[in-house]
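Narrative of activities, Objective 1.

The group set out to show that a structural description can be obtained from nothing but a protein's sequence at a throughput compatible with the screening campaign. Below is one input-output pair from the validation batch, recorded exactly as produced.
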Amino acid sequence: MSVERELAGAVALVTGSARNIGRAIAIALADAGAAVMVTGRQALADAEAVAAEIDRAGGRAAAMTADVGDPAAAAALVAATVDRLGRLDILVNNASVRREVDFTDLDYAEWRAVLASTLDAAYLCSRAALPHLTASGRGAIVNIGGLSSHTGAPRRAHVIAAKAGLVGLTRALAHELAPRGVTVNCVAPGLVDTARTGPEPAHHQKLSSPMGRKGRPEEIAALVRFLCGPDARYITGQTIHASGGLYMG
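Output recorded for this entry:
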C-alpha cells in the first residue's frame, strides 16, 4: 500500500470494476486508503477476486454484482455500499457496454441496452449516492467517458451517444452539486491496453497516439485517484483526456 494515503477513511463505489480500467481504479483508490465496493454486472467471481487482491494488500473492500442500468439495482448497490462499508464519499461511474453495430442494424432494444448500461447507470447511481456524497464533505463523482465520443467512430452510434451524454451530465451536475461540496468530473481514456472478449474495435486499428503506444489501465486510474483526492477540490465540470495526445481538445 502507498505511504501517502490521501483517501484514508473514505469509501468509494466503482461500477464495472471487476476487470480492466475499473479494476485498476478500484485498486488505485484502495492504495490511496479508501475502502472500495467492487462491482460487476454478472461476474461475481471476478469482482471478489479484485476485492481479495485489495484485502491482501492491506486495504478494505467488498464485492457484489448489480445491473446499474436498473433503478432498483442501482439504489440497492448504493445502499449495500453504505451498509457494508459505513459511508460513501466517492462514486466512479465506469460501467459500460461498448458493442459495435452498423447503424442500419441498430434496433431500439440494442440502443436502449447500451444507453442504460452507461448513461442511465451514471444518472441512477449518482442520484442514489447524492445524499451520502453531500454528507461526506469531500464527495466526488468521476464519470468515465471515451475518446470516440469526441472524435466519432463507425458502428458505435449508441456507444458514442451514451459517452457524449456523460460529458453533458458531468457539466450539469458540476453546476448543481458544487454548492453541496461535491465535485463532478469526467475522464476520457484513449486507446487503452485492456482484455477483450471480442475483436479489437475497428476504429482502434486505424488510430495511433503521438506516443506510439496504448495506455495502461493504471494510467487512467492514477488520474481518477487524483480527481477524487484533496488536491483536486477546485476542479469540477471538466472532461480530462488521457489519450497519449491522440485527442487534443
